Amino acid sequence: MTIYDFIVQDKDGKKVSLSEYKGKTVLIINTATTCGFTPQYANLQDLYSRYQDKGFVILDFPCDQFGHQAPGSDNEIHQFCTSRFGIKFPMFHKIEVNGENEEPLFKYLKSQKGFKGFDMNNTLAKAIAFQLKLKDPDYEKNADIKWNFTKFLIDKTGTVVERYEPTASMEKLEDDIKQIL
Hints:
The protein is α+β, with helices and mostly antiparallel strands and about 180 residues long. About 30% of the residues lie in helices and about 15% in strands. A hairpin with a 5-residue loop joins strand 5 (about 150-155) and strand 6. The model has no long low-confidence stretch (mean pLDDT about 95). This is Glutathione peroxidase. Pfam families: GSHPx (PF00255).
C-alpha cells in the first residue's frame, strides 16, 4: 500500500485520487489558520515555489482538532491562506487526523511513521508537551498526530519517508526534500 491508494476531497468537495501525484515528492501536512505554527505557511510556500518545478508538491489538509485553531469553512481557510501567505499549493477539505472520524490517509501515514518527539529547542515545544502530558501522561507512546503542522514526506514511489513534528526545523525538512527530489 502507498499514498496512491487513497482518495481524498479537495477544498471544493471533489474527489481526488492521490495517484495523481505519482512520480512526485510529496509533503502532506495538517494545518490550522490560528495556530502558533501558522507562520510556517510562509516557509512552506517558499519551499513549494523553489522546488515545484523539480517535482515537489505540498498537500495541505486543514484540521480543527487542536485547540479549535482552524475555524471557518474550506473556502474561508483557503482565502486566508492565499491572501495572507500567497499559498499556491493544493488545499484539501478540512479533516480530522485522530480518533474515530480520522481521515484514512492520516491513519495510514501514522502507521508508517510514528511520533518521534518534539524538538525542545523550539519555543512552543515545551508548552505543547505540557498540555499533552496533562491529557495523557503516555502521549509519546502512540502515533497520533500531536498538533497542527505535522508533516509527512513521501518519495516518488508513494512511500512515507519521514515524519516531522511541527517543532522540527525547516532546514532539516528542506535538506530531506532536496535529497529525494
